[in-house]
Specification:
Layout (H helix, E strand, L loop, with lengths): L1 H19 L11 E7 L17 E7 L5 E8 L5 E7 L1 H5 L5 E7 L14 E16 L2 E8 L3 E3 L2
Parallel strand pairs: 1-7
Antiparallel strand pairs: 1-4, 2-3, 2-5, 5-6, 6-7, 6-8
The structure holds 2-acetamido-2-deoxy-beta-D-glucopyranose (NAG) (3 copies).
The site of one 2-acetamido-2-deoxy-beta-D-glucopyranose (NAG) has 8 residues, from strand 2, strand 3, strand 5 and strand 6.
């Protein structure tokens, strides 16, 4: 499980960093990041449109070594909505969050015909909404996606 190991290292490094230099957002100690978005059955995956349910969504973030760490995985609800709440990331990354939300293509035709003939991935940058919200982790930074772009072949 090389990936789990990398991700454990990543979070251990984050904790060390956080302990040595507590980052603050608007004077408030943040425990993490919450990200919400929606996937719609359009040619770009962007809404408005019919939400696409039960699609796996991955949250990938640039780690402090410059590589990519998968920080979360979820599945869309029946309305195509998804959210991730992940620890600590918001602490040191502030408003510049080097994370993306990705969807692997193609989707099954029965799930979404408009995205069933395209391969590659849909990827959106994660952007802070600029507010702090209370979550299961305590205070976290609220973020959303800027919109999906198609990557790859
Ligand atoms: C986040 O998503 C889960 C299911 O994936 C859902 O149960 C929960 O209500 C959502 N939370 C918010 C704040 O949207
Ligand atoms: C997420 O990152 C992993 C590497 O950690 C990579 O294999 C995967 O293709 C990425 N997924 C998306 C949808 O960008
Ligand atoms: C967090 O941001 C999302 C997207 O902008 C917004 O819909 C939601 O209401 C915000 N949550 C809170 C508690 O402010």
């Amino acid at each position: 499980m090389a990936n789990n190991h990398a991700s454990a290292l990543f979070f251990a490094a984050l904790i060390l960093l956080a302990a040595s230099s507590p980052a603050r957002g608007a004077g408030i100690f943040l425990n993490g990041l919450t990200i919400s978005g929606q996937l719609c059955c359009t040619s770009t995956g962007n809404c408005p449109g019919q939400g696409v349910g039960r699609v796996p969504i991955v949250l990938n973030c640039t780690n402090i070594f410059g590589g990519t760490t998968t920080a979360g995985r979820t599945t869309t609800t029946d309305t195509g909505s998804f959210n991730f709440t992940v620890p600590l990331l918001g602490l040191i990354l502030g408003n510049i969050i080097p994370c993306t939300v990705g969807v692997q293509l193609p989707l099954e035709r029965i799930v979404c015909p408009a995205l069933s003939t395209t391969t590659g991935t849909l990827s959106s940058i994660v952007q802070s909404v600029g507010t702090v919200v209370t979550s299961v982790l305590g205070l976290v930074q609220n973020a959303t996606i800027t919109g999906f772009n198609h990557l790859g072949v």
